[in-house]
């Protein structure tokens, strides 16, 4: 702030300039000068909340622009209905555990397949009857006996998309769900639009009825969808009877699953098993024999009634 000359003309210490020292010290300790009027107006404007928020938005916009301007790798796209990869293993020539003994599919060709969960030991059996690209009834239902694996419940749309993707199909729309009473309990049902995944034509899409049930004792789930003939509305009563005909063929040592199906026997409705109804046509009844569906896992067909030998 100030300097002192330590030597005089005769090399003697020069006297200190007390007045200069005081002046320099006062200048250093003086408050800063008042800003110009324009600067004062700018500071007052920044104190307004609306202006401050607008400034923050501008700064955020600039940051976003700079972020997008910087080259970055493409984000990883995840399919919402995809299941964890590597957790399921296909069972070769699976032993049949479930049956769909429904007269609507007495002439339909189908596929029976099963998968084993490598994480918790659960098993999922899938029955497919009919062909979606034909004017005939179509059914795809999965019976999932959970093991110790974690299987969080998903939305009905995701559940239907997973059931369809296993057969190379796509779900385009799912309506608001409603409850349907069956012998197993209340199923969650909804109208589902299903089409071939490789086809973009809406003319080939079919309106089906999606359904699912989840129980905790035992840990067991049933989910799938059934499609009637093209141009015929879905009949919820026919769907309820179709579900009532789901049956357990073998359970091994799984006493809990056996008890679940045994308990459901008490809820059987006579109208779903009367011979008169089995002969009547409804929205699921086929008009002609269905073409064979190419089997990829195991060929499956409804059981043929036994006949007495002739004497």
Please describe what this structure looks like.
With 311 residues, the chain is an alpha+beta fold. It is built from seven helices and twelve strands. It has two domains: 34-72; 88-300, no CATH class. Helix content is 25%, strand content 25%. The strands form two sheets. Strands 1, 3, 4, 5, 6, 7, 8, 9, 10 and 12 form a ten-stranded antiparallel β-sheet that branches. Strands 2-11 form a two-stranded antiparallel sheet. The radius of gyration is 38 Å and the shape is elongated.
Features:
single chain; 311 residues; alpha+beta; 2 domains; ten-stranded antiparallel beta sheet; two-stranded antiparallel sheet; 7 helices; 12 strands
Topology readout:
Elements: H1 18-29, H2 37-46, H3 49-69, E1 88-90, E2 98-100, E3 110-117, E4 123-129, E5 138-145, H4 156-165, E6 169-174, E7 178-182, E8 185-196, E9 206-216, E10 219-227, H5 236-244, E11 246-248, H6 255-264, H7 275-279, E12 299-300
Antiparallel strand pairs: 1-3, 2-11, 3-4, 3-12, 4-5, 5-10, 6-8, 7-8, 8-9, 9-10
Number of self-contained structural domains: 2
What form results from the Cα inertia axes?
A: elongated
Mean pLDDT: 75
The major pleated sheet works out as:
10 strands, antiparallel
| Number of DSSP helical runs | 7
Strand content: 15-25%
The secondary-structure element order is: HHHEEEEEHEEEEEHEHHE
**Poorly predicted spans:** 68-80, 276-296
Distance between the termini: 131 Å
The secondary structure category is alpha+beta
The gyration radius over C-alpha positions equals 38 Å
Helix content: 10-25%
């Amino acid at each position: 702030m100030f300097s002192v000359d330590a030597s005089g003309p005769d090399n003697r210490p020069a006297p200190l300039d007390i007045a200069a020292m005081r002046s320099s010290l006062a200048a250093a300790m003086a408050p800063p000068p008042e800003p110009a009027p324009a600067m004062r107006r700018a500071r007052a404007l920044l104190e307004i909340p609306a202006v401050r928020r607008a400034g923050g938005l501008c700064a955020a916009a600039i940051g976003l622009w700079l972020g997008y301007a910087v080259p970055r790798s493409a984000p990883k796209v995840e399919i919402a209905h995809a299941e964890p990869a590597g957790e399921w293993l296909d069972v070769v020539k699976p032993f049949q555990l479930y049956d769909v003994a429904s007269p609507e599919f007495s002439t339909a060709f189908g596929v029976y397949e099963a998968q084993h969960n490598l994480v918790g030991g659960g098993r999922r059996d899938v029955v497919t009857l009919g062909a979606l690209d034909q004017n005939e009834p179509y059914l795809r239902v999965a019976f999932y006996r959970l093991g110790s694996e974690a299987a969080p419940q998903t939305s009905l749309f995701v559940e239907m998309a997973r059931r369809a993707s296993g057969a190379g199909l796509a779900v385009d729309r799912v309506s608001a769900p409603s409850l349907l009473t069956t012998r197993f309990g209340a199923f969650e049902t909804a109208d589902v639009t299903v089409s071939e995944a490789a086809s973009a034509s809406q003319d080939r899409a079919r309106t089906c009825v999606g359904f699912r049930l989840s129980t905790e004792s035992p840990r067991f789930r049933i989910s799938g969808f059934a499609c009637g003939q093209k141009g015929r509305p879905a009949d919820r009563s026919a769907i309820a009877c179709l579900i009532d005909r789901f049956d357990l063929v073998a359970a091994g040592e799984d006493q809990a699953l056996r008890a679940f199906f045994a308990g459901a026997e008490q809820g059987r409705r006579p109208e779903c098993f009367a011979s008169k109804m089995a002969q009547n046509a409804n929205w699921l009844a086929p008009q002609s024999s269905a073409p064979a569906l190419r089997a990829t896992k195991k060929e499956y067909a409804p059981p043929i009634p036994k006949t007495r030998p002739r004497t």
